[in-house]
Design a protein that fits this description.
elongated; Argininosuccinate synthetase, chain A, domain 2; 40% helix; five-stranded parallel β-sheet; Rossmann fold; 14 strands; 3 domains; 406 residues
Length: 406
């Protein structure tokens, strides 16, 4: 992009190594005014140091926004109504955060008169796609700066060298080394890079920051009861909570019991495979609970249709199409299915496992009178004979044909 076309740019800024280097690089390479935006999505880190770092770089417009409630209510909850899981494992903790960050960047750009936005995603990953699809969906005319696709800092070693040359602090991990890549929000943490790049090696315990190991979890199970209204969790253990409070509480309970660790190799949108170590304690508990309340309240046809559509819905989020018409169409169908998904689920958390200990709902379709093995007056078992014969008719005809023509 011609650098003289950019006058003001909104940078998604964490205050970490990558975005601190990007901030300095934007000032030097583009000679543009930089506005920093730091989102509090529940990552559990103190965000004021980001303000101090931005002020030290001469930044005048600094946005630090608490988006935790909006994140859970408007992004995480709609996704969990769909039971969305990418490739059977990943609960999409990073992917679901990107459209909200992109949306807020575009809002800030509009408010400050900025003509460009900038992110710190690399040219090898999914996040560049997610951010930029969000930008263009919300402002087709916005200019996008992606430093990792422009500069010559092609490795973390070169990034650290640049930082040291320009007096930018480089964080160290507990072993005195530059840390592996960690992304966190209220839904999950993800760790990638460095020692985790080899999928044949087990992740060391120090990689995990939100969960205890299942071996170290309590020897007695923890029971938790979640209340749902129209597919969304509204209370935990009899206490009404906001969406962000629900997830915070479930993170606490799940993490203390070693719930929600996954080590996966996933297929990135850009074509390569990547290995990541993720922690999603509260989300794992919530997914089990939501499926349990749906098992009582959803008709078989609706439940099976949702399960057929879920992989597509999850893929749309993973690929960055949150603002696409097809995701919104699927969301309307999913939300309609949740009209009667209300009630309570009791779960048992024990050493990394989540099991269902009970579920009940005023909208339950479960009839003990129909399914009992004891004598009943509501179901005539003789009716099953005709049902089976009609459903076997095509199989019988095919068999007779095959034997007739063989």
């Amino acid at each position: 992009m011609p650098k003289n076309e950019v006058n003001k740019v909104v940078l998604a800024y964490s205050g970490g190594l990558d975005t601190s280097v990007i901030l300095k690089w934007l000032q030097d390479e583009y000679d543009a005014e930089v506005v920093t935006f730091t989102a509090d999505l529940g990552q559990g880190e103190e965000l004021e140091p980001a303000r101090a770092k931005a002020l030290a770089c001469g930044i005048k417009d600094i946005y630090i926004d608490d988006l935790r409630e909006e994140f859970v209510a408007d992004y995480v909850y709609p996704m969990f109504r769909a039971n969305a899981v990418y490739e059977g494992v990943y609960l999409l903790g990073t992917a679901i955060a990107r459209p909200l960050i992109a949306k807020r960047q575009i809002e800030i750009a509009r408010a400050t008169g900025a003509d460009a936005v900038c992110h710190g995603a690399t040219g090898k990953g999914n996040d560049q796609v997610r951010f930029e699809l969000g930008y263009y969906a919300l402002n087709p005319d916005i200019k996008v700066i992606a430093p990792w696709r422009e500069w010559g800092l092609t490795s973390r070693e070169k990034l650290i060298e640049y930082a040291e040359t320009h007096g930018i602090a480089v964080d160290k991990d507990k072993r005195g080394e530059a840390p592996f890549s960690v992304d966190a929000n209220l839904l999950h943490t993800s760790s990638e890079g460095k020692l985790l790049e080899n999928p044949a090696t087990e992740a060391p315990e120090y990689v995990y920051c939100r969960t205890v190991s299942p071996e170290a979890a309590p020897d007695e199970p923890t029971y938790v009861e979640i209340e749902f209204e129209r597919g969304d969790a509204v209370g935990v253990n009899g206490v009404s909570l906001s969406p962000a409070e629900v997830l915070t509480k479930l993170n606490e309970l799940g993490g203390a019991n070693g719930v929600g660790r996954i080590d996966l190799v996933e297929n990135r949108f850009v074509g390569m495979k990547s290995r990541g170590v993720y922690e999603t304690p509260g989300g794992t508990v919530l997914l089990h609970a939501h499926r349990a309340i749906e098992s009582l309240t959803l008709d078989r046809g609706a439940a099976h249709l949702k399960d057929e559509l879920m992989p597509k819905y999850a893929e749309l989020i993973y690929f960055g199409y949150w603002f696409s018409p097809e995701r919104e169409m699927l969301q309307a169908l999913i939300d309609r299915s949740q009209d009667k998904v209300s009630g309570h689920v009791r779960l048992k958390l024990y050493k990394g496992n989540v099991s269902i200990a009970g579920r009940w709902s005023p909208y339950s379709l479960y009839s003990e009178e129909h399914v009992t093995f004891e004598e009943d007056s509501v179901y005539d078992q003789r009716n099953a004979e005709g049902f089976i014969k009609l459903n076997s008719l095509r199989l019988q005809m095919m068999n007779r044909r095959d034997h007739r023509t063989s």
